Structure formats: structure tokens, C-alpha cells
Amino acid sequence: MKVRPIAGIVLRQFYLFRGSPVRLLPMFAWVAVDIVLWGFITRYLNSVTASGMDFVPTLLGGVLMWDFFIRIMQGVTTAFLEDVWSRNFLNLFATPVSTAEYVTGLVITSVATSLIGLVVMLVLATALFGLPFFKLGVLLVPFLLVLFSFGIALGVFASALVLRLGPASEWLVWPLPALLSPFVGVFYPLSTLPPWMRGVGYALPPSYVFEGMRSVINGQTFLPALLAWGVALAILQIVLAAYVFSRVYRYAVRTGLLARYSAETVA
Amino acid sequence: MTSDASDVLDVGDLYKSYSGLVAVDHVSFKVRRNEIVGLLGPNGAGKTTIINTILGVLAPTSGTIRIAGIDVAGRRSAALAKTNFAAVYASLPGNLTVAQNLRVFGLIYGVRGLSQRIEELLEQFELARFRDTKCGLLSSGEQTRVGLAKALLNRPELLLLDEPTASLDPSAAQIIRGRIRRLTVEASCGILWTSHNMYEVEEVCDRVLFLSRGKVLLEGDPKRLPKEHGAATLEELFIHFAREPLATSAEAPR
Lengths: 267, 254
What we know:
heterodimer; A: mainly alpha; about 80% helix; B: alpha/beta; Rossmann fold; 2 domains; 9 helices; about 25% strand; globular
């Protein structure tokens, strides 16, 4: 992989953000709204339940981590869609850039935009609602790493889906995180789910993060092996997503889909 | 057909079919350095399919494409680093400025001394005053000039131009043709040029290929071809072959 083509892909996204405040706003506006909304919900729950359980770390912490994952996933997808919306595929894929360099450029863009969102969420959740996020200690690193990796995997997979099915299919990829959220136990333990849903949950890396987070916060036994399994699963899914993207790209080149892509309207 | 160092493009027995429909039917041709080759033919003749296969965005069913001796199928990045293109249907992202687009694509093509190269091209295509204008706000003629500037960023050995002057007024088109013509000499590159403007083809191209239904029907000097085939002008010859694609040279207009 060469650095300059990757820098070109990242620079294009940087120019777009710099030139359009409308693109900057979603980086922190929606996550801020989510944190404020869930912050007040947790406060209310703390006041009306007699259990004495503090909902702030579990619910608000869950929202924060899930939003971080969504930002990562959408960061990759949105950067890809910028090329769909501007009908730039022919210009881009007729250059020496490789698919690996292109996808790496999208991932770097996503990391940068997601970290901004994460900082905003952390500041708001800690300052306004007293979220003890750093109670998770060094485990924060693998927790965020798993969410980050799965976000990349899902973003790359979603981009492959749009490449294969056409520009209009972007509407299929936006709801993907919402579709997965019931299975990964953002707000409740996986044991709450019926067996078949639990089975799906175990195949999704974020489940191990949310289970682990609740164990640490509630002072229960935390099993590092389970988290390690989550990390391995996330890495495997990145490899699988990259493989799917590469196969779809080759299919698009073979069938003429890539050459015709620019002609299709986003309808 | 053997390839030598003067060939910047060597297309060998290129064949492309989509679910039984043949788009390019065993086409072979070469483009040499300092040469402009016109690829002519009616709509749907296979011109854009050939260009897309050369650019690596469409895989041929069979056949080979070598750019400056490098096989596109085997070493795509290395081959595409030596080429570039401009087409009316591939305008640059309208939400970036002229300078931003040139910088982004310059990086992607790995251009050394990029800032200086951008300045040269802005000057050459009279785009300096549009440097900070978003490409989407430019007129179609100005966008064409930006596309051409992008196409020259990496000083390509092979330049593919798909109707490069289609959006330009006659005066601007003449200036652009002159610049591109000079380029083949100064930059020692080869150009594959498609156009429906036969006057332009006659003025610019050293050699033309008449394509119909995916096959090359005729090849030769655009200034001599009409007479050789009994037509008064290149346009008349084009019309004849476009309407009678299977006609042989013996059946050409007299």
C-alpha cells in the first residue's frame, strides 16, 4: 500500500468537512442529543426505582458506546457514499489507487470523525450526568477496540452492499445498527433474550463489550477470555468484510457494474 | 502483432460480451508515442467499452491490454499510473474546488512536485481565477478544462479522451485541440481520442479506427481514408459505415 493515494482519499473527505458545516454538525450534534436524552432518562429511572441501582453507568455508558460504534460504521459508509453521490467512481477507480488503499482512506476518515464524536459524548456524559466512564479502567481500550473493529467491518460490508445493489440501496444500510441493537444487549444482559436471539448475539462482537461493561460496573466476575473471543470475532469480521468488498468490486469490474455505476441516479 | 518500445498502448484481440451480447469483438490496435488515434463509430459501437477496459474499470472477457508495456490485468496500478483520461460523462466532484480536486487526484496519482504542477495546469488551461471555485458551479466548458487539467496531472504516457471538446464552443475547442496536439510532441505521449466531430478528427488525428458493432471495420489516415473509399468527406464515410456497418470497402460510396 502507498501512502499518497491514501492521503488523497483522506484529504478529499477533509476538504468536504472543511467546506461544509452541514457535514460537521452530525459528527457531534446527534450524539450530544442522545447523551442528553438518555442522561435524563437514567436520572428519572434512578429517582423512581427503589432498587438503588445506578442506571447512569449501565444505560448511559451503553448508549455512549453504541453511539461510538454507529459513528465508526457510518463514518466509513458516508465517506464511501460521497463518491456515490458525486458520481466519482469512474474518476477514482481508473486511477492507480488499489481497493485496499481506498478502503484504508475511508477507515482513517471514519476514525477521525468518530473520535470527535466520542470526545463530545464523554465530556457531556461526564460533566452533566456524572458518568464514571473511566471506572472501566484499562478495559476501555479493548472495549473500544472491539466496537471500533466491528464498526469498520460493518461499514465496509455496507459499502460493498451499496456497490453491489446500486446507489438506491443506501437506504438499506442506514438502519443496520438499529437492526443489530436488540441482539447485542446494549441496555440489558443477553440472558434476557430468547435462545435464538442470544445465539445471534453471541456472533456479534459488541455483545461481549456490553456484557463485560455491565460485569465490571456491577462488580461481578469479568471473564477476560470472553472479551478475547469478542476481539477475535471482530478481527475475523473485518477480514470477512474486506473479502466481501473485494469480491463485489471484482464482480463490478467483470460485469460492467462499476463502469455503469456513475450513470445510475440515486432514486 | 508484436509490441515495441514506441507503443504506449497495445490492445490485443480484445473481446467483451455481456450475457451473450458482444460489445467488443476481437479488436486489436496500437497507439504509439507522439500519435493521436481516433476511435470512431456510432453510438453503441463499443468505443466506451474499449476505453473502460483500458482504464481497468471493466474486465475484458478475453484479450490483453498493455500500457507502456505493462499488462493492465496483471499490474493494474503500475499501468494506470502511466495513463489518465477525460470524458464528458466523468466530471470531477462538484463539491470540491478546482484546486482541491487537482490536489486530491494529484496525490492519488502520486504526482511529485504537486503544488508546482497544479500551478502549471491552472495557468495552461486558464483556470487560475477559478482556483477556489467549486467545480459544480463552473460552466460545462470550464468543467471540461478542469477535467483535461486533471488528465494531465501525472504527465501520462497514454491519454484517453472521450469526446473532450463536446462541451466547448468552437473557439475554445480549437485552442484545446492545439494544446493537446502540442502535448503529443512535448510530452511524448500517445492519445486515444473519441469524437463525433469529423472535422475535429480530421484536424487532430494521425490515424483513425472505424468501429461498428464491436469490430474495427476500417483503419487509416483520416485525410486519405475518404478518397480511398470513394467518399467526399470523413463525415460521409462515417455516415455510410454507421448505417451500413457490415459494408466492405468495396461497397463504400463512390
